[in-house]
Amino acid sequence: MNPTEDQIYVIIFATLFLGGIMSTFVISMVFIHRQRQTQNRQKMDQVKSEHEKTLLNIENEIQQETLTHIGRELHDNIGQLLSLAKLNFGSIKPEKQAEGKEILAQAIQEVRGLSKQLNLDWVESISINEFISQQLERIHATGFCETSLAADFELIDLPKDQKLVLIRVIQESLNNAIKHASPDQIKIRIYENGKGKQILIKDDGKGFDASQESTGSGMFNLKKRMETIGGGFNLTSAVGKGTEITLTLPN
Amino acid sequence: MDDRFIEAFFNEYTIPMDLLLMIGLICFFKLPKELRANVHYWLPLLIVVLSVLFQNVGFYTNYNYEFKKSVNAFLGNTQYPQFNLWLFNITDKQIGVLLFLGLIRIWLAPSKRIYITWMMYIFVVAIVFLQLSGIELMYLHQPIIFALGANMILVGCGLYFIGMITQEEYLDSNPLKLVSFWQMTFIMFTFSLSYISSVALFYLYKVNPVLGESLQTIGDIMSLVTLGILTLSVASPHISRIFEKEPSYESN
To answer: Which residues are in the Histidine kinase domain (chain A) (predicted)?
Structure first.
């Protein structure tokens, strides 16, 4: 074999080698793609099942909260109304009897209102603005603190899963404010900025150090829940300076 | 029509190429207006049109020797008047490479497109510099420019394949049913299989012209297959049963 033949063989084998490398590369890419596709599908299934699990937990929590509320209403409100009605019916005076009937009608009205809350159908019929108003009214009615709601628009037409998560997160944020912050005022604002639609829950309570893990775990849970619906949760707080929670709605 | 004309324009290479161009044009003009304006369809057709056009001009230069000789003389090449490398250098090795880079660019995720854009700028600056400085003359073999362009195309194809295994949009689809996958695969094969023979073209023609021509044939066949794939890309909306819709990075 002379040097020229050698060079020609090198050229032939180099061409074949390059072709081989390219074939191996493309085939490997297709195999890696298949593997990653399977992994991705498993991941998506896991995310979906976690999402469903979160929603189920949220539904349970809302029902639990509703039952607690109904229990309190039965004891503090309807129980009182029925006792009053009983007293009035015990009287022989016709005006007392009439008053008893009115109180009984009021109690029936209250029971009807409560019965509607026993299943989660109300979630679909209520807007987020209405829900927030009701929650703030309830807090205000207890005389715990002043409340206010300022909304630039009505949050309607949200999918049920998003609504459930939002309701629960708002409920939990308000519960936390009442339980731990002792505020004089709770303000909620619904607005839109460059990041999208947002809900700001602000209290002027005692605040806390948000960097501490013990106080942050509940908040982490809320954040995770907002993330399951593609939204965002941001909390800023400092001791003595109140707490601000910003919920970013999914686009 | 004389025999030489028929031999020049009606051979086993030009006939399939001209047919592909015709099929490509018919399929393109049958596309809805909004698809005709989409770069994913007009750019492959532009490459087919340009390739077929310069191949035919190349065959014409072989048919009309005087014309070829006068162009060579105009460019300062009196030593090899039989060469028509100037035509292939400008169209296939320079404009063609830029168009292929442009084609690769449109299939990449927006964040990766900047790399191809920079490659295109560097390539243009390099070819202008290499030709003006006389390092690679326009009418002679240009191995450096070919190697540079081919490497850029291979890197671009690599970026596409990396995107294919990392981007969520691509993970949802079957690559074997994507036009972009076959385009990138055949572009990569064309440039890698013809790499050695193109770089060593001059050497092979001097030492072993038969082998040189054989290796060149591999490149020609691969170019035909690539043109076929590009024509198929233009026709893909008409055969949606075979090809899946491309993952939507964003159109254009």
So the answer is: 69-251
